[in-house]
């Protein structure tokens, strides 16, 4: 990763963790639920503002070793904000900062870094059994990924390959549903989100996909919790100008353990890993585990 990007990531993380103006009440007091939550699974209340940053490191290898293998590695930081203007509505935006390296079997490399594609969404809570300290929540999600990442070029002016680009150059709608249940020291979440990509740069169009999560969390203390999830992705193969790609598309499942810790009121830190245990992607696609760390702060 280049020094400039590293400095950017550190400064952005620091900004998100600087306390803001005093709030009228802590998030736990306002929603009546002490459950430690990662970004996107919090209980709603009017005026809630949550900032977060999430670091991810991941990669995959496509193709056959010593023949046509191409290795992708990425370090990514998502800077996100979510605001509830109404007790039943969350508006959210996520902007990724990314650094990528692609190496093929000849050891030739392409590197790209910068701002990725912005994602904006709205989550509406259609049902909750109680206005305060709800035990059951049902929500729907609608959003779009926007082509905010610039097209990257090599020093000679030629465009980098698709895998080295940080964005798709397409406008991609997304829709989802989620159910959450809170029961004493335990909480549970089940969700599914569908993505309908459009065609973008270099004639590329990602396949339509559905991403699912089923997770349980145990919190014996106000300060820490453990979470175990199963994440799945079902997707059609991508195509370039209508020609279907041979590698990719299919089904993959991840086991997702996390540890959550709250060092201070309204601050939640988490660390975890997404381990691929079921890989039925078409062709030769070998994903690495995904390492994750995040920090969230409620104003």
UniProtKB/TrEMBL annotation:
Domain of life: Bacteria
One Pfam family matching this protein: Phenol_MetA_deg
Signal sequence, start to end: 1-25
Keywords from the named record: Signal
Name of the featured protein: Transporter
Originating species: Pyxidicoccus parkwayensis
Lineage of origin: Bacteria, Pseudomonadati, Myxococcota, Myxococcia, Myxococcales
């Amino acid at each position: 990763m280049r020094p400039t990007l590293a400095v950017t990531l550190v400064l952005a993380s620091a900004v998100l963790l600087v306390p803001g103006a005093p709030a009228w009440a802590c998030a736990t007091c306002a929603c009546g639920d002490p459950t430690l939550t990662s970004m996107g699974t919090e209980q709603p209340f009017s005026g809630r503002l949550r900032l977060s940053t999430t670091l991810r490191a991941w990669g995959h290898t496509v193709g056959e070793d010593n023949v046509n293998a191409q290795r992708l590695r990425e370090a990514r930081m998502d800077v996100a904000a979510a605001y509830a203007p109404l007790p039943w509505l969350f508006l959210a935006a996520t902007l990724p900062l990314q650094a990528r390296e692609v190496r093929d079997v000849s050891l030739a490399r392409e590197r790209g870094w910068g701002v990725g594609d912005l994602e904006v969404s709205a989550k509406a809570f259609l049902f909750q059994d109680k206005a305060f300290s709800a035990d059951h929540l049902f929500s729907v999600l609608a959003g779009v990924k926007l082509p905010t990442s610039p097209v990257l070029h090599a020093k000679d002016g030629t465009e980098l390959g698709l895998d080295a680009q940080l964005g798709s150059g397409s406008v991609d709608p997304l829709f989802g549903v989620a159910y959450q249940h809170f029961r004493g020291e335990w909480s549970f979440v089940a969700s599914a989100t569908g993505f309908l990509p459009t065609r973008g740069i270099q004639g590329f169009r990602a396949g339509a996909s559905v991403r699912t999560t089923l997770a349980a969390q145990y919190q014996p203390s106000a300060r820490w919790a453990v979470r175990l999830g199963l994440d799945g992705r079902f997707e059609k193969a991508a195509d370039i100008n209508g020609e279907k790609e041979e590698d990719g598309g299919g089904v993959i499942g991840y086991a997702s353990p996390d540890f959550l810790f709250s060092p201070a009121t309204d601050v939640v830190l988490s660390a975890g890993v997404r381990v691929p245990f079921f890989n039925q992607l078409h062709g030769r696609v070998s994903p690495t585990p995904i390492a994750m760390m995040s920090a969230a702060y409620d104003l």
